[in-house]
Amino acid sequence: MEAVAKLINNPRTNNNSGSPRKARYVVDMIRGLDIDKALSVLKYTNRRNVTAVEQTLRSAIKNWESKYEMDAADSNLYVKEAFVDGGKTMRRFLPAPHGRAYRMRKRTNHLTIVVASRNANNQEKNA
What is 2-126's CATH number, 3.40.50.11190, 3.90.470.10, 3.40.50.720, 3.40.50.150? Predict the structure, then answer.
């Protein structure tokens, strides 16, 4: 019993602004945690991508509730998978001394979070 949520800021491009490396720091903190603990960790983390990760986690919880028509508080949900993939990179140029140009790369990322119920995993192993 699991549900998936993907962050889509712009429906045409599916890109979230910010580099994937910086977003992975935030995602690594919540992977494997219960949803209550993961939300509290995100609340007190001072990073730029926290709001995007929190929004996606809440969306995954709501997706799970609507899919299985159960309350998330009773089902012992946890973050089963959370990963960040690189998106498109916009390339720009900055003027530099002596007529040169420095390349500036504006990176984007794709964020995916999967939540699952620990109770369901125990039932599947016993069956």
Answer: 3.90.470.10
